[in-house]
Amino acid sequence: MIVMRTNFFLRLFLVFNFIIGVSLAGCNVENNEKNSGMEKNVCLERARILLDSLYQNYSIPNSCLLRETFPFDKASEKILFDKRNSIPKDYSYLWPYSGTFSAVNALYEATRDKKLYRLLKEKVLSGLEEYYDIKREPHAYASYVTFVHQSDRYYDDNIWIGIEFTNLYMLTRDKEYLGKAKMIWSFILSGMDDTFDGGIYWCEQKKFSKNTCTNAPASVLAFKLFEATQDSTYFYQGKEMYSWTKEHLQDKTDYLYFDRINIDGSVGPAKHAYNSGQMMQSAAIQYKLTKDTVYLIDAQKIAKSCYDYFFRDYVTASGKQIRLLKKGDVWFSAVMLRGFAELYSLDKNDMYVTEFAKSLDYAWLHARDEYGLFGVDYSGECCDPKKWLLTQAAMVEMYARLAISVSYTHLRAHETVLDLVC
Fold first, then answer.
1. Which run of H or of E encompasses 330?
2. pTM metric for this prediction
């Protein structure tokens, strides 16, 4: 009897705390008809809370730049710039830093909060310029801050930034951002040649492979530039890159995408969520622009395979079976969500964004540490001693992205608060 009472009061305590937590987030949980509004508010509140934790734990005093890991250990954080010499890695590499651009951009898109726009201009973009390399032509962003030493320049790093500058231009119509995107596009085109009849290399200094992570998002950037400028040159370049990637890097058995084609013609067989997610988004955008159902079908096939491949069956401590995003690079999942969100905006099938929402709900309740930061395991069962900057930025982006998509109703009428908590 004592055990039964204890369990009852424990469950009552969990319910009470969950409801109070939702209320503090400004949410209305009175009835299921108001769920979609509640969900948007929850996502935005979580994105804001995590963004605050990011800047609290990764910021560098008197600088717009960020550390790459938390906790930061100066003794172990090194950059090996040749076989014998290293320097302290006091700042994040460009790739993780650029994730904060994507995160704040997505949250600004969801809210149009002027404070977030000020954060973008005064901190995110100011810090980003420390990576801008004008010593080499064409100009582009280097993989590490330029005032320390000259570093390699990656085409994919620059593409992600170009996408965000184009997104920001579409939100603000500030031509400075469009100019940045066009500058990056010139750099991207310099990474193409006739090897394998086209395609973009991965790294300017290491032209050993042509990767899906350059060519798929390059097609997305091209289509976004077309939408921003109505210059058909970008449209046809985007189509060319999409077709090239599909021909050379798609696994025709499951519609997912391999990692790269090496210069010797061999294929890197790894399948990463962001690669297929970007081809999904590219196909969806092409359907939006052309109304050719071939591209819609392409996107839907990729979406189904991504769901089958990058989610797993998971049993919670209470015995409930759910589908959970697989443990791994969280930012890859965030980029995959861009594809699902783009597709959802067109076919209105909310299944996949709903499943994302369930994973992110579970992670929020089970996978955060005492600093409010996430590791790479959405279940929270594996605890990472160090937390990566890009992981936090990716989680902010995903919560914001779900708020933009809205209308997802993962708390179904037949589910209770205890179903969500346990």
1. helix 330-347
2. 0.87
